[in-house]
Protein: ROK family protein
Amino acid sequence: MHTDLVAALDIGGTKIAGALIDGRGGILARAQRPTPAKEDGETVMGAVSGVLGELRKASDWDAVRAVGIGSAGPVDASEGTVSPVNVAAWRGFPLVARVREATGDLPVTLVGDGVAIAAAEHWQGAARGHDNALCMVVSTGVGGGLVIGGQVHPGPTGNSGHIGHISVDLDGDLCPCGGRGCVERIASGPNIARRALADGWEPGTDGDATAAGVAAAARAGDRIARASFDRAAQALAASIAATATLVEIDIAVIGGGVAKAGDLLFTPLRAALKEYATLSFVQGLEVVPAQMGTDAGLVGAAAGALRHFGGTGA
Structure:
């Protein structure tokens, strides 16, 4: 029997994942359900309860001391509520109270998914050993979290570091968030593909019109496809440099589906960063790929719960 375990939930628009995790970040049990994102709020909560129900059947459940949740946002940790953009029925949904009720009144810690991923990368991944870091996810959206002074910095509501909605183009497109010229509107996967298509790129014979299709075309020498990735890299570089100038991070970690494009993204990003991060105290800024993969949200949610009762964590 293990002691001082935590249960972790990673809640997104596609899936709800759960795990039992020990103080070293080891995963001892897993459960997962699809997110019924188009259904009513209670149906979505039913999927969460199903994941927790599976975890409670694990032989180690009696050692669980707390629950950590990393959720698509926005979240409000001060109120214990979530309003994920891609789960329409959850607006101000009292997730913390409902999970506490479903787990026999265990303490529950809530953070946004970007903050959870930052916690995971700082504890176990590419930001390990760095006291000041930005960790980003560039995928369907663009999110992030900050490590400042050796500690994950979730902010009052659990959303601090949400870099996708920094404006990097004052005259840019309107973003669904209500802002204009946001990083997400330029650098997310769907927006990389949208820009390439608008500029005249045509998908190959496989018909793949996603960012992965754009990446494949760019590698094959398509000029328009490469320009769309270059523009995304420039937007990311501008936002990373702004963050570094503001809070003196020394490393930026980038994960998510778009980061899988590898050098196609990282080479122009690093080149653009030299143009934006010019002050002496940010010139040494590193940009590296994330290491934690698909378990990052779970491990980061666990890190928050472990901190709650004095376990290891990040």
